[in-house]
Amino acid sequence: DILKVSVRTIQRRLRQFHLTRASTYAEMTDSALDAVVQDIVAGNELVGPEAVRASLRVQGLSVQRRRVRASMLRINPGAAALRAVMRRP
């Protein structure tokens, strides 16, 4: 509606110019992502994956949710388990 173009037209143009959503994500290795995530969660085990993604976006990095979750599990699996337990009623 904003662009006065149908969704279907936008999808066709994306295919026409070989554009995907995947190309919008930051290309970084898992170890580099782990280092950045470690800096973000340093000292606060209760920071969740969405807060980490928000911090990454502020730094100009768009990273998939699954990669952030996997990174947080690699960095500190105990904290991930603690957050899961605290979420439950």
UniProtKB/TrEMBL annotation:
In which domain of life is the source organism classified? Eukaryota
Descriptive protein name: Uncharacterized protein
